[in-house]
Amino acid sequence: MVLIAVEALRHSYRIGGGLVWALDGISLNIEQGDFVAVMGASGSGKSTFMNILGCLDRPAEGSYRLDGIDVGRLRQDALATIRNRSIGFVFQSFNLLPRTSALENVELPLVYRRMRAAERRRRALSLLEKFGLADRASHTPAELSGGQQQRVAIARALVTEPLVLLADEPTGALDSQTGQEIMAIFRRLNGEGLTIVLVTHEPEVAANAGRIVTFRDGRMVADHPATQHAWHSGSQGRLSLVYNAQ
Amino acid sequence: MRAHRLRSALTMLGIIIGVAAVVVMMSIGNGARERVAAQIRSLGTNLISVTPGSARMGSVQLGSGAAPRLSEGDAVAIESEIPGVIVAVPLLYSRAQFTVGNSNWQGVLRGVTPSYFIAREWAVMAGREMIWEDDRRAANVVLLGTTMREKLFGHADPVGALLRIRDVPFTVIGVLERKGQSVWGDDQDDVALVPITAARRQFVGTSRANPWQVHNITVKFAEGVSAEDTMAAVHDLLRQRHRLQPGQEETIMVSNLAEAAEVEETATRAVSLLLLTVASVSLVVGGIGIMNIMLVTVTERTREIGLRLAVGARQRDILTQFLVEAITLALMGGILGVSIGIMAAAAIGTFAQWPVVIDLSAVLLAVSFAACVGVFFGYYPARKAARLQPIEALRTE
Lengths: 246, 397
Ligand SMILES: Nc1ncnc2c1ncn2[C@@H]1O[C@H](COP(=O)(O)OP(=O)(O)O)[C@@H](O)[C@H]1O
Ligand SMILES: [Mg+2]
Fold this sequence. Notes:
The structure holds two protein chains of two kinds.
Chain A: E1 2-15, E2 18-31, E3 35-40, H1 46-53, E4 61-66, E5 69-70, H2 76-85, E6 87-90, H3 102-111, H4 117-130, H5 146-158, E7 164-168, H6 176-191, E8 195-199, H7 203-206, E9 211-216, E10 219-225, E11 229-233, E12 239-243
Parallel strand pairs in A: 3-8, 3-9, 6-7, 7-8
Antiparallel strand pairs in A: 1-2, 1-4, 4-5, 9-10, 11-12
Chain B: H1 5-43, E1 47-52, H2 59-64, E2 70-71, H3 72-81, E3 85-100, E4 103-112, H4 115-119, E5 124-127, H5 132-137, E6 141-144, H6 146-153, E7 162-165, E8 168-176, E9 191-195, H7 196-204, E10 213-214, E11 216-221, H8 227-241, E12 252-256, H9 257-300, H10 302-310, H11 315-351, H12 360-386, H13 390-395
Parallel strand pairs in B: 4-9, 6-8
Antiparallel strand pairs in B: 1-11, 1-12, 2-10, 3-4, 3-7, 3-11, 5-8, 6-9, 7-8
Helix pairs in contact in B: 1-9, 1-11, 1-12, 9-11, 9-12, 11-12
């Protein structure tokens, strides 16, 4: 079943006097249960694409259907509801609320669902437990390591039981060891049936995905299953296929 | 908010001052209103005071000797000829020296008729009342106000005691109930009352030109009778009796005592107006302070707003959040202001001897003012926050 259907997506930014097309005609279907890694050089439009998938931004042209809903036509409040119910977003910089406990951070999306406090707490706690943070529930982000903060952020993204987890360079701010721990979580979640779209420029990270799509200058230049291949970008930005032993 | 305690406190300053001013203003206003009401009650209701001379009377006029004097005949005429008048009491005043044993005091002596106690609704607390027999006999009897009684006799029972007024012996027949302070600030209980006949014979009625002269006529009219009509009737009657030509200089002053008491209230009204100005200015300044701080907060927390939007907050959720913050700031200022206002009002009551009445309605009004300021001045920053686009908000540093 197709969960995400993107058709001739274009998006531009106004820089100085002119327009820069950050996305220049992306068409892509993502199946329910897929684990997709989006790769590409810096500035190739990966974040722009993710922001549109996450309903944080609207495409200038083209269509985006999420679970059959034409998201491009929705009004602000309806988009807020989609963000709240269907999408879990994980950021490179965690984006946790400072001076707010891990538990309250995880509860936040449920607050906007007008859920009872006790139920919110129960759900948030069980997710923190799942990610090994039960004893950190009352800690503020400043009292947590980067890896712990990102796990709290993942718990926050999942507490609403979204249709898809979107992650824009979730390991970008972490050392490789911790990054691998985060990726282990992603693999586990995908194993439980969660659809994941992940942006990264690290081949080791992308290697965890089931499918790798590559962007260049706002276009999709490759789309491969990752069980056979991983992308490695050379020093001149040249792309070469490398066999992935895993 | 809690992260910037000093900043919040400074922001609230305007609200604090404004709300405190509202509380003080209302306390003083209520106190003044209640005092005036009490004073009118103590004065006796439906009273008109008639005195010789006019409001424009100056020393020149006094010197001319042309001013006709009020007489006991005038009082009799007012009482018998003007419908609606219950009593018209002639009064004589004098300062006098009072002597008990070897001790002397200066005090106010008033010559009155028994009708005076009806007019002033003034009852006797101990001893007996003044009766017409005292008046007819010009008896050397005296009724004391509570202050006078305390001065002369302390806590001893003065009824039946002998007292000398300007060396003339008088018998104390009773003590009057306490009246308290008058509108004009003097102690109404610091007085001794004797029959007007006795006063005239012993002290004041010696003018050969006008042996029946009185200093004042206090007129009490019936409930339901118009004060203006009665005043006009008294005025016409006296002009006629004193043969004043139309257009001739006004020489008799007829005034409504209750109104005079109310005029006194204008002093506190002026203070209230001043405080109202302070309150409005402070509340507006406080409101602008809140708006300013909220705009700063929204800018500082743009990323947080972006995150909230990203996890599903709707525009109205963000609007509500920042409005609540603005109102909280305003209400905290309001509550602080109420506390300071109550303390200030109490201090004014103690040190300036002003009557203050602090009631719940003043507190509620002041706090709801503060809340309104919070809503009004918090709305624009809150709307600004709510209208942020998620991606742009998230991108800011
Ligand atoms: N807010 C923005 N304003 C202007 N240009 C932008 C903005 N965001 C991205 N761009 C431009 O769009 C292109 C794609 O950016 P982005 O989607 O962030 O790429 P990536 O995430 O792959 O590095 C780049 O050329 C970038 O400079
Ligand atoms: Mg990026």
